[in-house]
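Note to self: the last two entries modelled the partners one at a time, which told us nothing about the interface. This time every component goes in together.
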Amino acid sequence: MFELLLYKLAVSKKSIPPVLTLNNRIFSEFDEIANLIELKGLLKVENEGNSIVDSYSILCTETLGSLMKYFLLCEKSGSTLYQSFTSVYPWPLGLILFLIYRNRTIKNLKVKEIWPLTYEQALIKFETTVKALSNKIQEINSDYLFGDDFTKADAHLYGHLYTILHTNISEHENLRNILVKYKPLVDYVNNLERDVHGLTILVS
Amino acid sequence: MSSSSTTEPRLAFTSLCIWPAYGALPSFDPECLGVLAHFAFSRLNVPIKTNLGRLKFYKERLPLLLSDNDNIHLAAGYEAIVDHCKRSHIDIDEKFQANIADLLALNALVKSTFVPAVLDTFWLDDTYRSSIINIYARSLGGFPLAFFYGKQKTESIKNQFNIIYGDKNFDQTRKSIFEKGKKVLDHLTDVLGTKPFLFGASPTSIDAFVFGYLAPLIHGPASNSALARYASSRKNLCDFVNRILTVYLGDLAKDNDTTDSVSTTIPTTSNEDRLRDKVAVIAVGILTMCAYAYLSGLIRIEINQVE
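The predicted structure of the combined assembly is written out below.
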C-alpha cells in the first residue's frame, strides 16, 4: 500500500520538479513557472522577440536536452540513472520507476529521431549545437543570449550547460570535454552562476 | 536535376527514390520535397526514381538514397540524407557560420511546431485525409496497400502526438498544435520579409526543410484547410514556395510529367503487376469454385487402381 502511494506520488504531475507553490496553487515544470513569471511582468519579452526566444528555448530542450538523455540511456551509459531512482525509492519501486522512465524516454527520443543516432553521430550533433551557440554568444558580446535582457532561453541554456559542466555524471564526461573547448560558453555559464548564487532560495 | 550545375561535388550514390509527382510538385511527400530542394540548392545531379514496385513503396521509408548500383541503402528520410551529405562534405550551410545558431534554432522551432501542424492537417483531419491517401494510393496500387498505409500513417502520427504531448485530451492537443503552427507561420513571414530566402540571398538547409512542408500544404488537396489558407494569405511565403518550384525544381517537375506520359507506351512494372493481379484473382476464383463443388458433392474424385 505504501509503495503504491509512493508510486502514485512519483508519477503524478505535482511531483515533476521544479515545483512552485504560490497562494495554494501549484505550478509544476519549467514552462508553467516561466509563463507565470512572464505574466507577472517579472520578465520582459517583446512580442517580436517571443518566437526567437521560443526557438532558442526549443533548441536547448529538444536538441541539448534530448542528447543529454540519450547519453544517459544509450548502450555505452553506466548506471547513474538507475542509481538515481534506487537511491530515492525502495526496491522494487526504484527499479519499476526506472524502467517506466527509460521506456518513455526512449519512445520520445525515437520520435525526435535522436535514438537511432550512433554514439559518434550524437557527439557530432552536440558539438555542432554547442559551437553554434558559442559563436552566437561571442558575436553578441553580452552576458545573455539576446543582449542585455535575460530570457527563458538563457534559463534553459544555463540549466543544461551547468548540469554538464558542474555535476559529476560519468556519462556526460565526453560532453564536458567538448564543452570546455568553447570558452565563451563556459564564461557565459560562470557569469550566470554568479547571478543565481546571489539569489536567496528557501527550500522547504 | 538543376541544369545550372557548375562545380559538382561527388557523392557515392547512384539514385534517389521518392514518391512521384503531384500537379506542380515534383513529389507530394514533404520529406521527399525537402530532399529534392536540398539537392537542388547543393547543385547535385541525382538520378531520381519514382517507378518503384508498389511493395517497395509500402515497405521502404522514402526518400531513400541508394548506392553501388542501387544495392546499398545509404540513408532514408530527410534528416539522415542531409546528415549523409554533410558527412560527405556537401554542406549548404557552411557559408552561414555566423548565423548557424539562428538557423539551428529556427530548424528546431519548425520541426517541433510547424511540422506537427502540417501532419495533423494531412493525416488526422477527416476532411482531407482521404484525398491525401488517394495521392499515395496511385503508387501503392490502390486497395489494400493504400488502405493499410493510410491507417498505419494515421496511427503512427497519433502515437507520436501522444508520446510528445501526453494522451490526456487529444482534441485540446490538436488545437494547441494548430495554434502553434499558425504562430510559426507568422514568425517565418517576419524572418523571410522581402528576402528571397530565410537567411538572405542564398538558400540554406532550413529553406529546403520549410519548403518541403509548405509547398504540399499550399499546392495540395488540403489547400482549403485553415492552416493552408493562413499560409496562403502570406504573400511572401507563397512567393518563396513558387520561386523554389520554378527556379530550382522546374526541370524536375517537367521530367516527371514526361516520364508519366511515356510510361503508357513503354511496358513497365505496373503493367506486369496488373497482369499478375488478374491471374491471381482468376486462379483464386477457380480454386474456390472447385473447392465448393467438391465439398458439396457435385464433384467426386475416385481413384481406381488398374492392374
